[in-house]
């Protein structure tokens, strides 16, 4: 018995990429191309999750004292104001 059900997907410009891959013989069907693409997406998301977890852990482990949120937001507001002024000057 089949463990998946057929779906219909509109691919737009990506349709040509699927057809090229199937025609080249690299894949036997459009379904195989889509499954490979989803596996690649899963790998990409897992790698990104790993990087983000490492960054969060790095921040947690950082021995430097925390910066108060109001200081951070103050710096961000000043930075934004400078950028707005520069864009109005045409810089």
What tags apply to this protein structure?
0% strand; elongated
Walk me through what this model shows.
By secondary structure, the protein is an all-alpha fold. The chain has one domain. Helices cover 70% and strands 0% of the residues. It is built from 3 helices and no strands. The longest helix is centred in the middle third of the chain and has 32 residues. It starts with 13 loop residues before the first helix and ends with a helix.
Layout of secondary structure:
Elements (H helix, E strand, L loop, with lengths): L13 H11 L5 H32 L7 H21 L2
Biggest sheet, in brief? none
As a percent range, the share of helical residues equals: over 70%
Coarse shape: elongated
What is the element string, with H for helices and E for strands? Answer: HHH
Determine Rg (CA atoms, Å).
24 Å
* Oligomeric state of the chains present here: single chain
Strand content: under 5%
Mean pLDDT: 94
Derived structural class: mainly alpha
Distance between the termini: 64 Å
Number of domain units = 1
Number of strands: 0
Number of helical elements? 3
- Low-confidence parts: none
In short:
The protein has 91 residues and is mainly alpha-helical.
């Amino acid at each position: 018995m089949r463990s998946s059900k057929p779906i219909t997907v509109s691919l737009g410009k990506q349709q040509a990429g699927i057809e090229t891959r199937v025609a080249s013989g690299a894949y036997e069907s459009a379904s195989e191309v889509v499954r490979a693409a989803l596996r690649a997406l899963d790998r990409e998301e897992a790698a990104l999750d790993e990087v983000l977890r490492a960054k969060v852990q790095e921040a947690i482990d950082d021995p430097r004292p925390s910066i108060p949120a109001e200081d951070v937001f103050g710096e961000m507001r000043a930075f934004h104001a400078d950028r707005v002024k520069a864009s109005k000057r045409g810089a």
